[in-house]
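Quick entry between incubations.
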Amino acid sequence: MIEVQHLSKNYGPFSAVDDVSFRAESGEILGFLGPNGAGKTTTMRIITGYMPATAGKATVAGFDVFDQPLEAKRRTGYLPETPPLYPDMTVREYLRFVAKIKGVRSHINDRVDAVMKKTRIDDMANRHCGKLSKGYKQRVGLAQALIHEPEVLVLDEPTAGLDPKQIIEVRQLIRELAGSHTIVLSTHILPEVAQTCQKVVIINRGKVVAIDTPDALTERLRGAVTTFVQAQGPIAEVQRALQGITGVVRVNVAEVRDDMGSFNVDTENNADVRRQVADTIVRGGWGLLELRPTRISLEDVFLKLTTEEPGSAEAAGTMTGSEGGANA
Amino acid sequence: MRNTFAIAQRELNAYFSSPIAYVLIGFFALLFGWFFYVPLAYFEQQSMQAGMNPGQALNINQMLVGPTLMNTTVIMLFLFPLITMRTYAEEKRSGTIELLLTSPITDVQIILGKFLGAMLLYAAMLAVTTIHMAVLFIFGDPEWKPIVTGYLGLLMMGGCFLSLGLFISSLTKNQIVAAMATFAVFLMLWVINWIGTFVGPTTQAVLSHLSLTEHFDDFAKGIIDTKHVIYYLSFMAFGLFLTAKSVDSERWRG
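Done. Structure below.
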């Protein structure tokens, strides 16, 4: 369990993290999402006890990271953005060393073998860390974080710089680890959150802008349903006809190419107007080329939330409402 | 304690699994051999002459061992920045400092581990020179006590250099910067009493007490004076204390 309350971190006048609060329950994977420089790494460094916060508090498995740092660190596994490997050590030597400083006192060899198996690096056991490929380095980093069987795992961009196959493997591994560990992972890749996390915290410029499940976040932001229509015919006329359908709020022309037009049809109250749209176009004698409801992707949510102007901050503020006032 | 040893072991591993340790020990042995040979040749010549007109026996400890150990401190001045420059700077640059600082060990354990690792490497360097001393015992008849105190003095003085080098390395990410700054500070501490009488008697006394080499003289002569022992020990403690403060302040500044 990880609990972060009103956490702030200032570097001189610059505020890297500003009043951030969230909570990850046991066995949960929490995705920490934000553009580069949003304060993700700083927050993670505070949770792992690498640096103290300016204000607020963070507890890991019930231990305050500032007041009881050794107890908290004993229960935390941390994979920083660059895996902290010593290039001159072999994978096995390195993991043995980490086991010792993480406080593993007995059966160190068994532990090392177990994590190497779990992270599938046993074939590289006697290779020097400096000679490994990026994917293996990342997995050794993960093995290092797991060696002392921590309750909490903090992973800073665990898939950054990996090729697609490795990304899938690492995500798979993280999903396997959930349940027995509480995991916080940061990323700026959205599908990653949708695929691996049960809860998303979106952070921008040091502030939390939204906390929710990936699905609910997309759902809630959608509000009005949008239907995408592509039709062949006179653009203005088609647009006017579509506007006339009951339930349609707005019709935007998305793209015009020759006599072909793409429209975004916004409707109110989640009304499904696909049938009426088809009827209208056929009745007009035009050609219906495409008709589908558009899902707002997490990407859109993310962009919308993180590019918000300061004036519309209330809109973002209401986003955190369903979290039970986690950000209050 | 266990954590300190784990760190020390890792430090030794870093020195000995890379060329660092071998190059350092090799060149140290080479330079020490030269510094040993020159007074030896001189001593040989003198004792030939002394043999022709007997009456005054030459003291091998005073003429050979003392000066050689004294000159060893010159080698330390040049080589020690190379031992300590990587201790913190490299960890900071490669990011492994994040592993150390997020592990359930204290800063003091890390610092002591690194210090111990460097001291053990230094002890290995000194161990090589005992061969030269063994040669003296085989072919001559030196006093063993001044040799032991001389080595003790070298170890303590080396400890001072290493603790200070550790501190300077903790201030930067750049190993070259660490080495240069360490060398400059070592040299300054070396020559700080050269200002002599220009600064007035009080300042002169203070400066001469600060000089690291000044305190070594007695050790080379076979004297263990507590005032020098305390000076060296407190110097080491101060260097390690500064390192601890530097690491801690780095945390707060991020």
